[in-house]
Amino acid sequence: MPPLPPLVDPGPPLDRGATERYARHLLLPAVGELGQRRLRAAHVAVIGAGGLGSPALLYLAAAGVGRLTIIDDDVVDVTNLQRQVIHPDAAVGQPKVDSAAAAVRALNPDVDVITHRARLSPGNAAELLAGAHLVLDGSDNFETRYAVNDACAALGLPCVWASVYRLQAQVSVFWADPPAPHRGTDLRDLFPAPPAPGTVPTCGDAGVLGALTGQVGSTMAGEAVKLICGIGTPLLGRVAFVDLADATVTHLPLAPRPAHTASPAPATPPTHQHPLVTPTDLAAELTSETPPVVLDVREPAEVAIAAIPGSLRVPLADVLADPTAIGLAPDADVVVHCKVQPRAEAAAAALTQAGASRVRVLAGGILAWVREVDPSQPAY
C-alpha cells in the first residue's frame, strides 16, 4: 500500500524567525523545510478543549500549525485542572475556548486562532468546520462524537479520533473517502450506533488518569502532523488500544462496513419517562413518616465523595443486570439518582420494566442535592 499523500500544500518559504523556531523539525528528514511549510499552511479544527484537546492544541501550536479552530461550549471547572493542562487555575469559570486560545497565543503568537463557544451538531457542523483540512475529535459524549464523525464524512475531512476511560484509551484516524487505493473507515465501522443513554460512564462518572489524556492527546497531534506532511503510516484502518496500567499499545485492524449498509440514524436525546423530584422536595419527603427509598446507582468511589444519608447504593451495572436482585417491593416508593441524571434514567427504566410501579428520578442528581440541600459535601 503506498503512503498517503500530504494533506496540505506547502505555504511560502520560511523566514529567519520561523527557521529558528522550528529548527528541530527542519532537522528531521521526514518533516524538513517543506513539511514545516505544510504545517504553517494547515488549518486544524479541534473539537473540545478538555483532557484530549489540551495537549493536542499545545503540540499543534508548538509545531507551527498555521490556523487552529477551537470548538467547545463548556467553562473551566476546578475538577478539569487535574488533566486539562491548557487551563490555569485562574481560568476557572471562564469559557474553555477563551482560556485555550490565550494559552495557544502565548505559546506561539504566529498561530491564527478561531474560537467557537458552541457544541458541534449536524445543524452547525458545516459552518464550524469551514476551511479546515482535518479535524481532531476530543469530545467526551457520544452525541457529539457521532455528529463530528458524520459531518467529517459528509465534508470529506479526515478525523483523528480518541476516547479515554480510566486507564485505557482508543485512538484512530477516520476518513470516509481517502485517496485511492486506501480504504475509508469511520466511527460507525467501529461502533455502528451509540450506546443507550446512561449506560456508559463518562470521565466525570468513572474517573480518568490525567497523564493518560496527555499521552493520547499528544498521539492525536502526532497523527495530525503525519497527515498534514504525508509522513509515516497514520492510524487509518487501525485502532490503537492503549492500556496505561500494563504499559501496552495494541493495534487492531478496522475494516469498512459493507457499502450497502446504511448508517444508523444518530441517536436522539431521550425524553424523561419517569417523574422527577427536586432535591428540596426529596429532603422534605425524607423527614416524613413514609420516606421513599433513595437508590444511588453511582460507583463506590463516587459515593465516598458525596452521598444522601440512608440511601441504598447499587451500581448501575448491577441494577441493569438484575433489577429484582435489589429486593425492592414492586409497589415501593423509589427515587433513583446518580451524579447528574442519565444513569438514574437508565436504572429507573430497568426497574419499571421489571415491575416496579412507583419510580421517580432525582432531578440533577447528587450535584443538585449538594448545591440545594447539603452544600457541606463536595461536588465532583
UniProtKB/TrEMBL annotation:
MF annotations from Gene Ontology: nucleotidyltransferase activity
SUPFAM superfamilies: Activating enzymes of the ubiquitin-like proteins
Name by which UniProt lists this protein: ThiF family adenylyltransferase
PANTHER family in the record: ADENYLYLTRANSFERASE AND SULFURTRANSFERASE MOCS3, UBIQUITIN-ACTIVATING ENZYME E1
UniProt-listed Pfam families: Rhodanese (PF00581), ThiF (PF00899)
Gene3D superfamilies: NAD(P)-binding Rossmann-like Domain, Rhodanese-like domain
Keyword Cell inner membrane appears in the UniProt entry: no
Disordered: annotated segments: 255-275
Biased composition (Low complexity): 257-275
Upper classification of the organism: Bacteria, Bacillati, Actinomycetota, Actinomycetes, Propionibacteriales
Matching SMART domains: RHOD (SM00450)
Entry keyword annotation includes Nucleotidyltransferase: yes
InterPro entries per record: Rhodanese-like_dom, Rhodanese-like_dom_sf, ThiF/MoeB/HesA, ThiF_NAD_FAD-bd, Ubiquitin-activating_enz
Keyword annotations of the record: Nucleotidyltransferase, Transferase
Domain Rhodanese residue range list: 288-378
